[in-house]
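In this section we walk through a basic example: taking a raw amino acid sequence and producing a predicted 3D structure, encoded as discrete structure tokens. The instruction is simple. Fold the sequence below.
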Amino acid sequence: MATLKNKIHLTGDPTGEKWESLLEKKREQLDRKFSIVCFGRFGKNFFSSSVREAFINKDFKDTTFKAVGHQLNFLKSNIKEVGGIRGAVECFIGGMTNSPKIIIEPSFEPPERFADIFIEEGTIKLPFPKIVVISGTVRQGDQNSIPNRYINQFQFSVVEQDGDGIVIHLVLSDALPPAIPVVASIGLYVTQDPDSKQIVINPLIPASQVGWMFMDEIEMLTWQVLKAVYMMTYHDGEVYMSAPTPREIQINEKKIRKGKTPLVEFRLISITGKKPPEPSIPHGSHAPPRQHWRRGHWRSYKSGKRAWVEPMLVGDEANGKIIKDYAVGNYKEKRYDWASQTK
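The resulting token sequence is shown next.
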């Protein structure tokens, strides 16, 4: 687990101008100029109306996760040279391989002032101990070559619980030799602003990483993660469950140890406002279910009170493991034959 120490609180300036100026000034002094590592643009004419639609495309999915696999192998092989706080690189590698993945669509809009609910609780709780948040963007310079509201690249962030807050890890890189990437970390906690004395959610970054990212990048990433966590933990609807290959974790661990590209199977399900019956997980007559995480969430009562239901690891590991993946967005009603899409 990676924990932020010697943190810089990005607080006291609602507009962000003070910190944006500081981060840019520090960035100018750095020898390396980092940018967020993105995936997805394997052809100049490829673009998609949503992240989920892109991952339904088998060629895109295979190409993207092959690139992700190479990135993970590179991080693993050069772990001592990769910059970041203690434990961040290992957290990113393990999270990408073994943790549930949650898509957050650029078009998804939660209720206004949704983040206030975290402030009211005084804590930010993840639905699982560790998650991967995938968001869609437009590659710099491509804005004029693809239709409006379409995307052509994707960012991966690994998020882990840190007490009553969360820490976001993502890979940054530059073009300078030897081009060893770094893993940047951003903390989100419910704290009191030292200037206004109000209870707020402010991003925190390690002092050693000042200048690695711009303020608008930090704000964008933290906002996307908060939207994904809100949808997974406060939404009233149920989820559609998926059942990837039971031995996926074990196979991937062996592949990474041997320097091979891991299998990153990605079968998406949706969180909606409706309550369809939860599909059963096939596990044989009277046999214990395969090991999987039950999603942590806030349970609301008629009295108006809420109680946190902890994520729970259930089932029998001997029958295999299940990694669940989710898509958060306002989708039209569609039904996909996932079996044919993932063959």
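Looking at the output, two observations stand out. Residues 237-246, 272-286, 333-343 have pLDDT under 50 and may be disordered. The chain has one domain: 20-111+124-184+209-331. In the next section we compare this with other chains.
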